[in-house]
Amino acid sequence: MPQRETGDIWHHIQMLVEVCLQQQLPISGVISDVKKAFESVPRGPLLQVALQLGLPAHVLNPWQRFLGAVQRRFLLHQQVGEAISSNHGMPEGDGLSVVGMTVIDLCWDFYQRCFAPATMPLSFVDNYEILAARCSDVLHGFGVLEEYMALWMLELSPSKTHFWSTSPSDRAALRRLGKSVTLQTADLGGAMTF
User: Fold this and answer.
1) More exposed terminus of the chain, fewer Cβ within 10 Å: N or C?
2) What is the share, in percent, of the chain residues with pLDDT greater than 70?
3) How far apart are CA 99 and CA 105, in angstroms?
4) What is the spatial distance between Cα 95 and Cα 83, in angstroms, rounded to a whole number?
5) Domain extent for 139
6) In whole angstroms, how far apart are CA 71 and each of 75, 82, 194?
7) CATH number at residue 20
8) pTM for the complete prediction?
9) How many structural domains does the chain have?
10) Cα gap 138→122, rounded to integer Å
């Protein structure tokens, strides 16, 4: 998207953390990533939603034909296998695949604001983040995110899901609930400190 980059997310989150610390207000969040996002997106629903959002048919129709013609080959024991057609997923590295993930992100933003209005949703391709003043709102928002991903038949990666909070008591509560809690982590290529 024009004028949008990962640095916008880092700066926004770090600014909110800094302001909350200065004002002694708690802020909590969660960072997650879709497991094998591009391989897992169901094409049919994605293209229907893209059409409903107003993506032009002169883009969607050739894209649909291209996706229908994509074949995959697997390398096993140094041998390239037979071509396998697929009706699921999008090729990683294709610019339109990023458009597809952006459609999912945009719909998630609406979904999240409807079902978890006390949260602030942030996304960048297959990276999803939720911020809130209360830890309980982050937990609720994360549940809503998991529900949304289930609707798309997508799965969040447990190893790339990390909760954080500026409040020691909220961090302790998250740990008691079995959540992976961090004070610092790499996020979208940036070093984040909470």
Assistant:
1) N
2) 99
3) 10
4) 23
5) 6-36+119-193
6) 14, 9, 44
7) 3.30.70
8) 0.88
9) 1
10) 12
Instruction: Report in angstroms the alpha-carbon separations of 92 from 38, 97, 115, 169.
Output: 6, 7, 31, 41
- For Cα atoms 99, 9, 131, give the angle at the middle one, nearest 5 degrees: 105
The residue among 67, 162, 148, 57 whose CA lies nearest residue 104 is: 148
- 107 inside domain: no
pLDDT for the residue numbered 145: 98
Residues 115, 105: Cα–Cα separation, whole Å:
15
Q: Is 11 helix (H, G, I), strand (E, B) or coil?
A: helix
CA distance 188 to 186: 7
In the beta sheet, which residues pair with residue 156?
34
Estimate the share of the chain in helix, then strand, then coil, as percent rounded to the nearest 5: 50, 20, 30
pLDDT digits (tens, 9 = 90+) for 75-134: 889 889 888 887 788 888 888 898 999 999 999 999 999 999 999 999 988 999 999 999
Which tokens in the block code for residue 120?
């602030």
DSSP string spanning 45-109?
A: HHHHHHHHTT--HHHHHHHHHHHHH-EE--EETTEE---EE-SB---TT-HHHHHHHHHHHHHHH
Q: How far apart are CA 41 and CA 104, in angstroms?
A: 9
